[in-house]
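CTP synthase: structure tokens wanted.
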Amino acid sequence: MKYVLVTGGVVSGLGKGVTASSIGLLLKSCGLRVTSIKIDPYLNTDAGTMSPFEHGEVFVLDDGGEVDLDLGNYERFLDITLTRENNITTGKIYQSVIDKERKGDYLGKTVQVVPHITDEIQEWIERAAMIPVDGKEGPADVCVIELGGTIGDIESMPFIEALGQFSYRVGTGNFCLVHVSLVPVLSVVGEQKTKPTQHSVRGLRGLGLTPNILACRSTKALDDNVKEKLSQFCHVPAENIVTLYDVPNIWHIPLLLRDQKAHEAILKGLNLLGIAREPDLTEWTARTKNYDMLHDPVKIAMVGKYVGLTDSYLSVLKALLHASVHHRKKLVVEWVEASHLEDSTAEEDPNTFKAAWNHLKGADGILVPGGFGDRGVQGKILAAKYARESNVPFLGICLGMQIAVIEYARSVLGLHNANSIEFDPKTSNPCVIFMPEGSKTHMGGTMRLGTRRTYLKVPDCKSAKLYGNATFVDERHRHRYEVNPDMISELEAAGMSFVGRDESGRRMEIVELPSHPFFIGVQFHPEFKSRPGKPSALFSGLIAASCGELDELLNKSSHVSKVVGSGISNGKATYNGHQNGSYFNALNGSLNGVCVNGNGVHH
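Answer:
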């Protein structure tokens, strides 16, 4: 096994995830099998209990792991399926060591950071690196490891020590360190300054790690004299210093690395030069150029409660982007803070209220993503009502599906106090209830998580057609509340159609309004399986409906007898979460190339 470690210096947010994903893609294009590991030095066991404002979205894996959003980047970029083992946190490491201590594995020993914590880190890396993630048997050829945070952080010190030991343990030719650093340009003098990177590398070397490659973030390509200076003071060959300068969209980064021969430096450091082929990024290059030329817009209103940090909805944005590029449209996202649609905002801040409604009414389609807590719920309900009554394409995900059901019960059934017990535990008309198997005392890892099967009960519904006439689909979940099964017959009698259910038939997974051009709510999260070249079927349907191409898409899908999926059932295709297409995906939280608006603010 070969290892590539990506670290960051000077400041956070330089794009280590972009760099790690791009390196992975580059090595994969050289014919190598690649896996990824993300190390997060925080004490949380996983990302499941973190606020999106704190750490961005929580990405959910097939096995139910709640992990850092960077693992979503790796999955989308490398088209792999990772496990919870691929996300290492300080909490997991210490928990594992303490469990071993309690069992007596260290009997007689004083348990210490060195060697017990550092050994556990190394063993975890080796174990996770061996897990197949690309659908093939046996381990990958190369494991790309991203160390979160910045060199010098106190919380990452045990990982730095462990990785220093690990590099010695696996030996020369099996370990390559790529250090991402900042080369700022002071506007006063216009000169690229190398001192921050010098200090960062000096700190890294002082901790026992020596970089093989420097990836320097800057506004423009590094001058030759700057490279020479960095080479001299950082002890890195000039040909191993690459520039990650600002580009129109983030998909140019792998091409930048290839053009600067970064793959050759990595392959040389890993003794793979004679084994790997030249990188083949022909298709990637063509897609990058095609995307740059898109100009016909499709405007989607994103009605959420975490719109202050767009990384909170990163996978949703990527799925929208995949689908819009597939339909050759330029994605424009209108951010709408859900609470700004409510009457209370109209009284307190009429201008904000008016702007929010203008954004909503000016959109071609409306998407209400998942979320927790009661803030902004009434605004989401109003958005669903507007979409339903105005025949605007609507997609509700997780909570978005639940509020669509609540709105229908209130407006159509006349149950004005209909609600979720999450927001009103004493409601007399609970449309959404707490799942029986959930825990009310422990929050972390107790939701219904990971890939679950949904059976499509109505063959000619829009969802079934979008999924290529599948009889069932496998999608990822993350929820602890569900639509009340005791109210289904009443809702269906009033015109709602619950077209997708779990294996028991009592848990609702997909709801549609047959009388509406496109009104779909899903309990699962289809965005987590959207991939480059394989857009989510439901996101593709939303974009198609928003630009007047839904009938064409449904007719095309209805003739599909087999799609990328998990087999054949009753002579019809089954489906594992995405459909074939020709487009690709951005690497991290940056929204380069996506026009994003919201409440008068351009992000």
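The CA atoms of residues 222 and 243 lie 6 Å apart. Residues 561-572, 579-593, 598-603 have pLDDT under 50 and may be disordered.

Cheers.
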